Amino acid sequence: MFGDLLKKLAQPAPDTLADGDARLALCALLVRVARSDGDYAAREIQRITRIISTRYNLSQTEAEALRHEAETLEAEAPDTVRFTRAIKDAVPYENRLAVIEALWQVALADGVREADEDALLRMVASLLGVSDQDSARARQRVARSA
């Protein structure tokens, strides 16, 4: 089902993804962050669905369907680097901070700041070309709004 997208992500220099593929890659990255601590908690799943719904102006049902697709893609995809590379290529820089903020919303959704999630977020921010300082500010904004 996701063979073509996985092939695109696996290319050494992938082409810019179509909007739908970029959306799916971002959602899969949200799922990957939520699963990184070994506990894919209900609060994280709900947060991902809410982020998807808000970000893409989707109904609850549409957002859940996209999240389910992203869960499948995340399980089949070989590594995080390919997701971030595709997102970096498909998303303008000014929007990447919003991506990092969404990732922090997922990482902090269960109310616990896990070392595995922190490490993954540091790596992802770097791969997206977002500075540690900007990522820290995004995390602080999310923590304040929680």
Write structural notes for this entry.
With 146 residues, this protein is mostly helical. It has one domain: Orthogonal Bundle (TerB-like), CATH 1.10.3680. Helix content is 75%, strand content 0%. It has eight helices and no strands. The chain has helices spanning 3-10, 19-35, 42-56, 60-76, 80-90, 93-107, 115-127, 132-145. The longest helix has 17 residues, at 19-35. The N and C termini lie far apart (36 Å). The model has no long low-confidence stretch (mean pLDDT 85).
Strand composition percent: under 5%
What is the CATH H-level superfamily?
Answer: TerB-like
Q: How many individual helices?
A: 8
Going by helix content, strand content and strand pairing, the class is mainly alpha
Gyration radius, to the nearest Å? 14 Å
Number of domains: 1
**Poorly predicted tracts of residues:** none
How much is the average pLDDT?
A: 85
Distance between the ends: 36 Å
Q: SSE order, as H and E? A: HHHHHHHH
DSSP E strands, number = 0
Q: Determine and state the CATH class.
A: Mainly Alpha
The biggest sheet, with number of strands, parallel, antiparallel or mixed sense and barrel status, is: none
The general outline is globular
The CATH topology is TerB-like
InterPro entries: DjlA_N (IPR007791), TerB-like (IPR029024)
Domain Co-chaperone DjlA N-terminal: 23-140
